[in-house]
Fold this sequence. Notes:
The protein is an alpha/beta fold. It has 7 helices and 9 strands, in the order ββββββαβββαααααα. The two termini are 30 Å apart. 52% of the residues are buried.
Amino acid sequence: MPPPQPYGPAGRRPPPRKRGGGGFAALIVVVLLFVTSGLIRVAVRSGFDTAGHSGDHASYTYAPKPGPESGGVAETSANPLLADPGSPLSPAQCPYAPWSTQVDAARKFFESAASCLAEAWQPVLRQAKLPFTAPKLLVTASTSGITTPCSGSSSNFAAFYCGADQTIYMPISQLQTDMFGDHWEVYLSVFAHEYGHHIQALSGILGAANQQRRQNGLYSTAGLESSRRVELQANCFDGMYFASTAGGKSVTPIQAENARKDAYGRGDSGADMRDHGTTEHAGDWWSTGFDKNATAQCNTFTAPSGQVS
């Protein structure tokens, strides 16, 4: 395994609807690690104002182990999950545990969210005749001492999904809680995005997309576009879940709008590798999921290149 390759110049264009004057520098750290027949992409994202906060984003990414082991259908655009007219996530009330940066409390918060995400997604996969298993979850205070099949023993990672062990890793130290404080809707959105990668893995989308990326070249124009389609679809699935939980009145309209603004602050800047999509498209796909709430509407793999740039 080659050593981590840090990447990412400072600087990011301001997100939409930024309050107040003054620019700020945003640090992006991306680590690319090759694992057996797979790729880990790890990032620290930045630059959003929610309810008066501004600064670095809570992070999200995925680290899949591509292949047929998920039991889904190895298709992207033609995957049964995305067949017309698509399935919604039904409105549902979720008893989220109180948020705290204390590890035990944060773990209970994400566990409560995971239960609700499973209840939301399981019937959708069943309807598409796809398998469902809940992901494992590891919530820690930091990345120190954490070894994963995707990242090895490196401690340079943020919140991410590892397909090799179907686990979502949520290190609290990487969620920029000093910036977002008690705005737990931001952390919920990060988690729902990672859960979206798990849904992609179960359906077979993630393995098929990564196979296409390897065939085209990881950093080729086509390879990077495949990565953007994966990430933007996870944004769309994130938005769908917020439609479900907002419909169940488990988040307020203001919290849902904060999550939407958060999505519009994420994405690639001009100096990035262009593997996540522009901030505009990141927000647009989240909004598509929230506003339309149908899996077929999240088919980023049939979208024109201009909508996933």
